[in-house]
Amino acid sequence: MNWNVYKVFKNGKRAKAPVISFKHTGEREEVDQYFNTNIKKNFNEKNRGLEFIVLREDECQERAEEKTHQQEEDALKKQTRVLASLLKEANVKSKHRVVGGLIFAAATNWKWQWCALEGASNNYIEGLSPRFDNPRDAHQWMNREIQTLI
What we know:
Strand content: 15-25%
Distance between the termini: 42 Å
Structural class: alpha+beta
Strand order of the largest sheet: 2-1-3
Largest sheet: 3 strands, antiparallel
Shape: elongated
Helix content: 25-40%
Number of helices: 4
Number of strands: 6
Radius of gyration: 25 Å
Order of helices and strands: EEHHEHEEEH
């Protein structure tokens, strides 16, 4: 079985690419012991003092923070699709690029509202949703809109 070795940085995150790969059969403990006694001893003195993580090559190699970012990116894409459809329905006209966003401003009577905004300045153009007393309700509304769009 093939194993990938990744460097673990001081902040606890691990490197994107493996430092080295090796073959070894056996259980996780045996592989870790083999790495520490037979492979790590061949590293230069500086690298021997570093922390490493060993992962089976056939298992997921994706880092936890990448998974988190992927979920955030997917949610943002869905939100963007909803805002785009609302902008299209509202037929907003502007000489500047138009974006959608959640704002709390005088233009919305100090309520939370999903709005059409000028891209460069975020100036209010038009409201796209009802007004909400708190951002949690605005996000719940957006999640319902996402579900109806999907």
